[in-house]
Amino acid sequence: MGVVWSIAGSLTPVPALDRLDLVAEPVAAALRALDPADAARLAVTGIDPSLADTAEFCAHYGSPLSASANCVVVAGKRGDAVRYAACVVLATTRADVNGVVRRRLDARKASFAPMDDAVTLTGMEYGGITPVGLPAEWPVLLSPEVAAAPELVIGSGVRGSKILIPGEVLAKLPGAEVVEALAR
After folding, report:
1. How many CB atoms neighbour CB 21 within 10 A?
2. Residue 172, Cα to own-chain centre: how many angstroms?
């Protein structure tokens, strides 16, 4: 593979395109659609699904919390219209849903999307939702810290694996926008 992942801890990452069986179908489709040079920079690794939550994952596998990024689905409402977005911030921070995200979505009210909606709309498992492979019309809002990170651990669309990815590649995803002050 040629890529050495300093954040892998005790995991053994493999090239993501070699193990598409480890990711959700929308994620596999998005990985296949990436520029081949970017796709070659991604890895995937299987994990115990009961350890998918960030804190437990990091503690068990020895991956630094500061190199984990969380993806949350936000629903913004104005009247009867609902707009969705994904927010990707470092695990050591939180997305400013009621300020920055609400304004970006031109919504009167913004909140985390209900779990059933997030799962149905993304085709991914709750606790494994990732910015890779989201619906094309959704903005993918990245904090500057995420976009600048040399290596990150993110979800894979399922709870049984993780993707390792440079922030620079996340910033090239369809719909990706780097948003100042997204993370607090």
Report:
1. 9
2. 13
Q: Angle at Cα 54 formed by Cα 48 and Cα 59, nearest 5°?
A: 75
CB of 80 closer than 8 Å to CB of 59: no
Q: Is the overall model pTM greater than 0.90, yes or no? A: yes
Tokens of 160: 């049984």
Best CA proximity match to 125, nearest among 27, 12, 8: 27
The side-by-side arrangement of strands in the sheet containing 152-155 is 14-15, 43-46, 161-165, 152-155
Percent of the chain with pLDDT over 90: 98
Q: Which residue's entry shows tokens 């892998």?
A: 8
DSSP H stretches of helix in 34-96: 36-39, 54-61
Q: Which residues contact 81 (CB under 8 A, 6 or more apart)?
A: none
pLDDT in tens, 56-107: 999 999 999 999 999 999 999 999 999 999 999 999 999 999 999 999 999 9
Give the burial string for 147-176 (b: 16+ CB within 10 Å, else e).
Answer: bebebbbbbbbbbbbbbbbbbebbbebbeb
Confidence tier at 2 by pLDDT (50, 70, 90): low
- Check whether 183 has a pLDDT greater than 90: yes
For residue 89, what are the contacts with CB-CB under 8 A and spacing of at least 6? 69, 70, 95, 143, 145, 146, 182, 183
